Amino acid sequence: MQTKYLAKIFVTLRPSVLDPAGVAVQSGLQQMGYDNVENVRIGKYIELTITTSDETKARQDLERICDQMLSNPVIENYRFDLIEVETQTGVF
Amino acid sequence: MQTKYLAKIFVTLRPSVLDPAGVAVQSGLQQMGYDNVENVRIGKYIELTITTSDETKARQDLERICDQMLSNPVIENYRFDLIEVETQTGVF
């Protein structure tokens, strides 16, 4: 039996790392009159589907995928939510 | 009285728009052996704090900020969550 999960992955800069893009956005917003906006931090939001035998395997795969491909562990953190979308039985 | 809100903003490509970065990531993952991953879509995740008189004003400001600065409404959708983090009284 294989289950398909929707993964919602958040990759964010570690709090100690400078975010020049965030600073640029905040500066732009101030020039547009939004001087009530602060602490702008820009990260990535990734959605994908992953098909595995169970949720534990899906989480293991996703942690490796995040470490190796989607984030730079030196400067970024990640977290993800898993949502079951489909269960299939039979031969694959 | 002024309230500070933490906004968590998700900017995603509209479903009808091709995502070349997502295709590249999926192709890379397949070469790494993850052929159980599909439908990779890459978006932006932005956190910021906004200080306003009330939540309605915060939502109005954020919608303008998303439309004018954080997203390209032609090809992207956005949504955001607001979390109240601090209420301040007195003169500003």
UniProtKB/TrEMBL annotation, chains A, B:
The keyword ATP-binding applies. Its EC number is 6.3.5.3. Part of the phosphoribosylformylglycinamidine synthase complex involved in the purines biosynthetic pathway. Catalyzes the ATP-dependent conversion of formylglycinamide ribonucleotide (FGAR) and glutamine to yield formylglycinamidine ribonucleotide (FGAM) and glutamate. The FGAM synthase complex is composed of three subunits. PurQ produces an ammonia molecule by converting glutamine to glutamate. PurL transfers the ammonia molecule to FGAR to form FGAM in an ATP-dependent manner. It catalyses: N(2)-formyl-N(1)-(5-phospho-beta-D-ribosyl)glycinamide + L-glutamine + ATP + H2O = 2-formamido-N(1)-(5-O-phospho-beta-D-ribosyl)acetamidine + L-glutamate + ADP + phosphate + H(+). Keywords: ATP-binding, Cytoplasm, Ligase, Nucleotide-binding, Purine biosynthesis. Pathway: Purine metabolism; IMP biosynthesis via de novo pathway; 5-amino-1-(5-phospho-D-ribosyl)imidazole from N(2)-formyl-N(1)-(5-phospho-D-ribosyl)glycinamide: step 1/2. It is found in: Cytoplasm. The gene is purS. One of its GO terms (molecular function) is phosphoribosylformylglycinamidine synthase activity. This is Phosphoribosylformylglycinamidine synthase subunit PurS. It comes from Anabaena subtropica FACHB-260. It comes from the Bacteria. Belongs to the PurS family. Part of the FGAM synthase complex composed of 1 PurL, 1 PurQ and 2 PurS subunits. It is an enzyme of class 6 (ligase). InterPro entries: PurS (IPR003850), PurS-like_sf (IPR036604). Pfam families: PurS.
